[in-house]
Design brief:
Elements lengths: L1 H13 L2 H5 L1 H9 L8 H34 L3 H6 L5 H33 L9 H14 L1 H13 L4 H11 L2 H5 L12 H4 L14 H25 L5
Length: 239
């Protein structure tokens, strides 16, 4: 597994993944205004965090999933990789860990960007609501895990880079509307990250209920991750 993860890291160094990680925070940093007029850190959270969780996060996780499979889809890469004495489930797991590592790195950069936006506006450290930010970012990171597994499974089967990306963008755009529905929003994978950002009295200190966390997020992750792993292990890959 360590060798597979090292291989994925070396491929990322040659691609655009690390640059894309900083793209969304940079855009938000340039687009946001001054929050020094009494709006406070909460305004920074709602503007920066929600923009990221609603649109950028679901799309970027799909971009990362497509990018980690891009090299194998070119020039018979899957045949070369799977010809090695390595189990397919390890390949799948290594790619998922790589996708989530990029998502986590993006979260860290976004968190730092939110801090920078507030400090630039003259907001003080002493008033920074650590609980609000940590719960939101940690919750959205957990909430995106089943979506990332689903996106990876699709990207592994779909040779075209534009195909999974276009499908992902199309399904991400209605997520804000879906999130406004208490009945259907939690079941829509692209809406789960932004719902996890909404402050509420949730389970284990997160902004989600025990039902949402256990049944929808954890259950969805098990279905998407292991379903994709089994399909990859038993199916044919079109190199």
């Amino acid at each position: 597994m360590r060798a597979l993860l090292k291989t994925e890291y070396l491929k990322l160094r040659k691609g655009l993944s690390l640059a894309i990680v900083g793209a969304a925070p940079t855009l938000l940093l340039l687009a946001t205004g001054d929050y020094g007029g009494g709006e406070g850190w909460e305004a920074v959270y709602y503007d920066a965090a929600f923009s990221y969780a609603w649109l950028f996060l679901p799309i970027l996780s799909g971009v990362y999933a497509a990018l980690v499979c891009r090299a194998e889809h070119l020039d018979g890469g899957w045949k070369h990789l799977l010809a090695r004495p390595v189990r397919r489930w390890r390949v799948y797991a290594a790619k998922y860990v790589t996708v989530m590592s990029l998502v986590t790195l993006g979260h860290a950069v976004m968190f730092a960007t939110a801090l920078l936006i507030g400090l630039r506006s003259g907001l003080g450290w002493t008033s920074f609501p650590w609980g609000l930010f940590v719960r939101g970012y940690l919750g959205s990171l957990i909430a995106v895990m089943p979506l990332a597994a689903l996106q990876l499974a699709v990207s592994m089967r779909w040779k075209s880079f534009a195909g999974p990306l276009g499908l992902n963008v199309t399904l991400a755009l209605p997520s804000l509307l879906a999130a406004q529905s208490p009945k259907y929003g939690p079941w829509y994978p692209w809406a789960q990250p932004v719902l996890a950002m909404v402050p509420s009295e949730g389970y284990l200190g997160l902004n989600v209920s025990v039902t949402t966390l256990v049944v929808i997020i954890c259950g969805g992750f098990v279905l998407a991750f292991f379903g994709g792993m089994i399909a990859f292990s038993r199916g044919d890959i079109h190199a």
